Please model this.
Amino acid sequence: MSVLHITGGAPLRGELTIPGSKNAALAILSSVLLAQGQVVLHGVPKVSDVETKIHLLENFGAKVSWHEGSLFIDCRDLHYWEPDEAHVRPIRTSFYLLGPLLARLGKARLPMPGGCKIGARPVDFHLKGLASLGAKIELVGGCYVAEAPTMEGSEIYLDFPSAGATQHLMATACLAKGVTTIHFAATEPEVITLAGFLQAMGARIEGVGTATITIYGVDRLDGCEYSVPADRIQAGTYLLAGAITGGDITARNILPETQTALVNKIREAGGMAEEGSDWVRVWTEGPMHGIRVKTMPYPGFPTDIQQPMAAMLALANGPSVVEETIYESRTGHIQELVRMGAKMRPEGRATVIDGVESLRGAVVEASDLRAGAALVIAGLAAKGETTVTNVHFIDRGYEDLEGHIRKLGGTIERIPIAEWEGKANSSREQIES
Ligand code: EPU
Model:
């Protein structure tokens, strides 16, 4: 266990090559169970959620290894097994293994999934969709116990364009007999990436990127080689780190269209931005001002960048409102930013902000992944020293965060918690004596 220790105040400047997408990689690492051949994945980010997912795949008999930054996975020899709960609970996408396991093995048993505590996050769309493909699923003693000797294509209507349900059901339907149509499907870039991966394995899918996806079942899916695109949320976090510190950052190796909602809001708040074929640059030429932001499914403003955006608006001139429409309680950053001198409060699902001139360093606690990212970028802009605890949340989704920030001129170090507590105790003793 470690903490991140940040000395704030320096504008972050420079260029970064953004690592692969966590959420795209996690979706692929569920669907990989469908492959009856070797899969080679490039660009998989080295984050703890990916490591957890690899342990889960190994539970089911997959052979997984890293070679020169690429991930080699062989799921030819799967066996039915109840995975270790310790690997299921930390991540939401452990649940997305259920359909692929049913498609390959005809039965599965999975403990209930977990993930960041940002709302209720039920799995009812997944369960209804799998049931309409022919699966029988029961929740017994905290475990989903499922059977599906065969699966048949069907018409699935989602009540909300859920990224996870669209990914899970699209992947499972690839091996169902006949045609499956998913209505009100999500259009998130990670859905498109997953469809590309499934197609590379031999799946027949149409309509990806629209609200209606049609899947024509095939008898088997083979191995393939595939590259995971850059992480749009990591990219957005670094662009906001540039804006909040009054710096100038170029995020490279990205799909600029995945930053449009964020870039438009940064411009609306007075920031500057330009983009090329695979990069986006953000900089400021004076103070930012308050704006309204509302999270929406893609291509709307991403919920996953809402908390870092609120951190940036904490230092904007005037009032802002950041409205969260996807999750009920993605608010863990608010009280910690207030500890740093921000003026903000939750109001229902919204964060109401009155911009302040400066933040001051403090010891703050990450309550979830993106709250942690918000605290780090606030610490980079704050006067003095900030220590962010609960760093394991941040490690779930940011590859080499410290390395990237240092490359941009920020001062940040990872300190083992015992060493940090020792330093904190000795400076307390000095003050008291
Ligand atoms: N929902 C239901 N029932 C379901 C599924 C979803 O009510 O069966 C609700 C959720 O509770 C939520 C909304 O639908 O209120 C949207 O959830 P969605 O299914 O789209 O989210 P997800 O697939 O669980 C992924 C990302 C999230 C990201 C969302 C939205 C992964 C591993 N997670 O979650 O990423 O916020 O899509 O884009 O892909 C993060 O990276 O910090 C993160 C939370």
Summary: The chain has 15 helices and 23 strands. The longest strand covers residues 2-7.
